[in-house]
Design goal:
Blueprint: H1 3-15, H2 18-25, H3 29-43, E1 48-51, E2 54-57, H4 59-83, E3 89-95, H5 97-103, H6 105-114, E4 118-124, H7 127-136, E5 141-145, E6 153-168, E7 185-187, H8 193-204, E8 212-214, H9 218-226, E9 231-235, H10 236-239, E10 248-252, H11 255-258, E11 259-267, H12 273-281
Parallel strand pairs: 3-4, 3-5, 7-8, 7-9
Antiparallel strand pairs: 1-2, 5-11, 6-9, 6-10, 6-11
């Protein structure tokens, strides 16, 4: 096994095609086919499921891809360290929508200004999607709802969010879930940690939400609440940043449910210079017992 084989393997995994991968790594297809077969023989497993003209990663291939990406990333980092260059290359960051909108814009602007050689890419989505991206190697790091206890991840708490029940204007105070039993709620998809938190809050009080309407943005949720169509759970920092927040009532959850920590996570052992540079620009992380 050598670095060239790993680069070829990554190219095939990304494109699903020997021809496209060969063009990407500037090799002839026959050479690529031979080297991939040699890599599989060396490992003793099939890395791809071959379907007509397409190659799809096998379960072993998916596992190997994560290590291959980490190895190549470490090699690139070692080259930069030896060369004494400033951080450069691609840095793909994931974030919850609220974090991207409220917490990190100034940090991102500072990062882009200080490290112009870094190609920065930002993706937003629910925690589940962001975690999948980190574990798959598509994201270098991501902001997610924590704490995180996954053997393949490392991370640190960085922000504390106060979670607010948002109701139509004129709604009486909400102190517990039974007071809004059966109300329709607006939330992100099922892999959103905030949605799961909202549902657990209901169930802990032996209450149930009504219809759960899945939305793509907090702005959509707020618009539906303003219209009187239901309620939502939104971080205070996000709520107060949105036009229209004065047109609703908002109530903090009870203390045991009120606070959620946002963590920055990355693959275990995959700390890069780009990530180190980004962490240095963040505000001091939360203590683990903050609150």
């Amino acid at each position: 096994m050598d670095l060239t084989q790993l680069e070829m393997f990554n190219a095939v995994a990304e494109t699903g095609s020997i021809t496209q991968a060969a063009a990407k790594v500037h090799r002839v297809p026959s050479n690529l086919t031979t080297r991939i077969r040699q890599l599989e023989a060396d490992l003793g497993v099939d890395l791809f499921i071959r379907e007509s003209q397409r190659l799809r990663l096998s379960p072993a291939g998916h596992n190997f891809l994560r290590y291959s990406q980490q190895i190549l990333a470490l090699v690139d980092e070692a080259r930069m360290v030896v060369a004494g260059d400033e951080p450069q290359g691609l840095f793909a960051l994931g974030a919850l929508e609220s974090t991207a909108a409220v917490r990190i814009p100034v940090t991102l602007a500072d990062y882009n200004q200080r490290y112009p050689k870094i190609q920065f890419a930002l993706s937003t989505g629910p925690s589940g999607t962001m975690l999948d991206g980190v574990l798959a190697g598509n994201l270098n790091a991501a902001f997610v709802d924590g704490p995180i206890a996954h053997p393949g991840l490392e991370g640190m708490p960085v922000y504390r969010e106060e979670m607010m029940i948002v109701t139509p204007n004129g709604h009486p105070p909400v102190t517990r879930a039974s007071e809004v039993n059966g109300r329709n709620i607006y939330a992100f998809r099922a892999n959103c940690s905030y949605r799961r938190h909202f549902e657990r809050w209901f169930h802990a009080d032996r209450a149930m939400p009504g219809t759960i309407h899945e939305m793509e943005s907090y702005h959509g949720m707020l618009a539906c609440v303003i219209a009187g169509a239901g309620i939502a759970l939104i971080p205070r920092s996000m709520l107060e940043s949105m036009p229209g927040h004065h047109q609703v009532e908002c109530w903090p959850l009870a203390e045991d449910w009120r606070w959620l920590d946002t963590w920055l996570v990355w693959r275990r052992g995959a700390m890069t210079r780009q990530l180190e540079a980004f962490i240095e620009l963040l505000n001091p992380p939360l203590p683990l017992n903050a609150g």
